[in-house]
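Look over this record as teaching material.
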Amino acid sequence: MKHISMRTSGLAVLAMTAGVMVGCAKQPEVTINNDGCLHYASQVTLNGLAQRQEVTAPGKMTRVALMLNLDAPVCVSPASSASAPTYKRINDLKQIELVAQSDITAMHQLSGFRVIAKGSLTNISGDGTISPVGMTVIHIKPENQ
């Protein structure tokens, strides 16, 4: 019995040593971008005109996207150097696709209105995309409310 408990203790010490060794490994240097752009994965609030737009990808069905036409072009960039491989900087962005988290019908009823939209930005790619950037909408309302 005593022999088994010693072996268990040895494994625990080995596991703790391995954990410390992993924790001490040199981490890559991360720089935070302070470049005047909006950043992917951060929450933003944007104003503009919401408009439906048909999107057709080659060989696929047509879908209707709700776009936010911005009052002035913006740039969107990675928040830090660590996310740069996933997210690319986009300059002079004039349209962002609004992506509903839940009630897509209610959101599309705002087409033709000036709106205030709050959400997080993400990159969009592939066939049938209008804009390289989308916003996962947390809250949207007409601008005058």
